[in-house]
């Protein structure tokens, strides 16, 4: 009898976990060059949902601060999967936050991943480059793509 109660509770836990909405996650951020004195300091990265679900949109909010006034720039994003380069994107800074930037600000990036994206651990590197391609900051952080793809509504 004890085994059957355990089996029922275990299955209910798994079922609740699979149906439970995924929560945001604060990623652990590292600077690309730990000795650099970047003009933009990154306070954290929130990823929602987490783990990222294939076939659904994920949102990355990068909290940062700077004493410099930045009116132009670009974000260069590179993603690796087990050391293999799998994705690259370059965006205009002012499409990801209100410009000019100074003080505290948030960079927001949304991305939808195809249903065939392999599940597992990925690493994202983001560089913020100023007007003259000056490296204002460079960070890396890991994220996961879940094993269960989103179910298409039909």
From TrEMBL:
Domain (MD-2-related lipid-recognition): residue spans on this chain: 29-143
Domain of life: Eukaryota
InterPro entries assigned to the protein according to its UniProt record, in alphabetical order: Ig_E-set, ML_dom, ML_PG-PI_TP, NPC2-like
Keywords: Lipid transport, Signal, Transport
SMART domains, sorted: ML
Molecular function GO labels: sterol binding
Single GO BP term: intracellular sterol transport
Signal peptide span: 1-24
Similarity comment text for this entry: Belongs to the NPC2 family.
Entry function: Catalyzes the intermembrane transfer of phosphatidylglycerol and phosphatidylinositol.
PANTHER family tied to this protein: NIEMANN PICK TYPE C2 PROTEIN NPC2-RELATED, PHOSPHATIDYLGLYCEROL_PHOSPHATIDYLINOSITOL TRANSFER PROTEIN
Subunit structure: Monomer.
Name of the featured protein: MD-2-related lipid-recognition domain-containing protein
Species in which this protein is naturally found: Platanthera zijinensis
């Amino acid at each position: 009898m004890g085994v059957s109660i355990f089996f029922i509770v275990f299955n209910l836990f798994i079922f609740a976990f699979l149906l439970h909405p995924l929560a945001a996650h604060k990623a652990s951020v590292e600077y690309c060059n730990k000795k650099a004195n970047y003009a933009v300091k990154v306070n954290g990265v929130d990823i929602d949902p987490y783990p990222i679900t294939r076939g659904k949109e994920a949102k990355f909010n990068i909290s940062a601060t700077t004493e410099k006034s930045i009116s132009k720039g670009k974000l260069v994003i590179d993603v690796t999967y087990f050391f293999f380069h799998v994705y690259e994107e370059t965006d205009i800074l002012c499409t990801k936050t209100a410009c000019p930037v100074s003080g505290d600000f948030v960079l927001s990036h949304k991305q939808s991943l195809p249903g065939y994206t392999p599940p597992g651990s990925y690493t994202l590197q983001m560089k913020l480059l100023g007007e003259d391609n000056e490296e204002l900051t460079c960070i890396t952080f890991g994220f996961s793509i879940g094993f269960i793809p989103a179910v298409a509504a039909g």
